[in-house]
């Protein structure tokens, strides 16, 4: 974790920002809960446990700054809530998500599934792709199994 915090600190310094204690507390929460897709309010509640003096507005500003600097990605899974996801170190692109419409679970796909599509877009439309996001909405395996079991017991 300290290595990633140091890298984030360097990214901030390169853009003339400092890793203030409030920003560091926010980054630590994001790193500790990296597998989760936390809303600003979720982050705030977790940061508040570590640093009670931090206000919600500070957390919002920190998340927006980290988003602008592409340290985190601001994502929305169609439920009207923005969530924040740390960008993987060295990742050229944002990762993809599978969102279950039944239980709300979110799984990540680290593999870049759109390399060929990017090449087509670049070659056929002359559009230089800088990043992409792909979210699949459907039903996860667990919910499919649960539904199948309900049918069998009926």
The averaged pLDDT comes out at 87
Q: Report the portion of residues in β strands.
A: 15-25%
Instruction: Report the uncertain regions.
Output: none
Report the span from N to C terminus: 50 Å
Q: What strand order characterises the main sheet?
A: 1-3-2
User: Structural class of the helix and strand makeup?
Assistant: alpha+beta
Keywords:
alpha+beta, 47% helix, 154 residues, Arc Repressor Mutant, subunit A, flat, three-stranded mixed beta sheet, Dna Ligase, domain 1
Detail the topology: elements first, then pairings.
Elements: H1 2-14, H2 21-32, E1 38-39, H3 40-50, H4 56-68, E2 72-76, E3 82-86, E4 96-100, E5 106-109, H5 115-125, E6 135-138, H6 141-153
Parallel strand pairs: 4-6
Antiparallel strand pairs: 1-3, 2-3, 4-5
Helix pairs in contact: 2-3, 3-4
Tell me about this structure.
The protein is built from six helices and six strands, in the order ααβααββββαβα. α2 (21-32) packs across α3 and α3 packs across α4. The strands form two sheets. A three-stranded antiparallel sheet has the order 1-3-2. Strands 5-4-6 form a three-stranded mixed sheet, with no helix packed on it. It has helices spanning 2-14, 21-32, 40-50, 56-68, 115-125, 141-153, and strands at 38-39, 72-76, 82-86, 96-100, 106-109, 135-138. It starts with a helix and ends with a helix. The longest helix is centred in the N-terminal third of the chain and has 13 residues, at 2-14. With 154 residues, it is α+β, with helices and mostly antiparallel strands. The mean pLDDT is 87. The chain has two domains: 1-90, Arc Repressor Mutant, subunit A (Orthogonal Bundle); 92-154, 2-Layer Sandwich (Dna Ligase, domain 1), CATH 3.30.1490.
